[in-house]
Design the sequence.
C-alpha cells in the first residue's frame, strides 16, 4: 500500500541530476543594491534552491546553497526573458548547472 503525505511535502519542481553533456553557467556574487522579483523557484527540500528572478527588464537565476554557517548565494548572467526562460527549463532538466 502506498502512503501519501497530505498535503505533499514538495510542491515546487525538483532539478533533475546533471546530464553527462551539461553546460556550466557563470555564477557571480549578487548585487545587494538591486531588488529582484522571484518568478519561479525549485523545491527547497534539498541543499540547493534555484530561483528565476526579474530585475528590471532582465532575468537571472539565483542559486542558494545551504552550507554550514551562512548560505552561499550566487547569481547567473542576465538575459532577456525568452533566453532566461530557456535557461530555466534547461536547468530543471539537468542541461545547465
Sequence:
Amino acid at each position: 500500500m502506498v502512503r501519501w503525505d497530505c498535503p505533499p511535502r514538495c510542491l515546487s519542481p525538483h532539478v533533475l541530476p546533471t546530464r553527462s553533456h551539461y553546460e556550466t553557467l557563470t555564477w557571480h556574487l549578487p548585487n545587494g543594491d538591486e531588488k529582484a522579483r522571484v518568478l519561479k523557484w525549485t523545491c527547497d527540500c534539498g541543499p540547493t534552491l534555484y530561483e528565476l528572478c526579474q530585475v528590471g527588464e532582465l532575468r537571472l537565476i539565483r542559486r542558494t546553497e545551504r552550507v554550514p554557517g551562512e548560505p552561499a548565494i550566487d547569481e547567473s548572467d542576465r538575459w532577456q526573458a525568452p533566453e532566461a526562460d530557456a535557461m530555466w527549463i534547461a536547468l530543471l532538466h539537468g542541461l545547465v548547472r
Summary: The mean pLDDT is 92. Residues 81-92 form the longest helix (12 residues).
